[in-house]
Amino acid sequence: MDVTLAPEQRELHRVCTELLDEELAPLIRRMADRPRHGDATAEAPDNAPLRAMLWQALTDLGALRLGGDGHGLQSLAVVAERLGEVLYQGPLPDTVLAAEALLRSAPGGTRDRFRKEIGAGAPVAAAVRDGALRPDEAPLVTDEALETITAERRFVAYAAEADYLLIPGRTADGVRRTALVRRDHPTVRLRRHEELGRGELYAVRLSGTPVAYWLDLGSDPEGAWRRLLASARIVQAACLVGLSQGALRLATAYAKERRQFGGPLGRRQAPAFRLARTAARIDAARMLTRAAAWEADSGVDPRLTAAQALAMAGDLAREASRDALQIHGARGMTEACDAQLFYRRAAVESVALGSPARLRAEVLPLLLAKHADRTPSLS
Question: pTM of this prediction?
Answer without folding.
Answer: 0.92
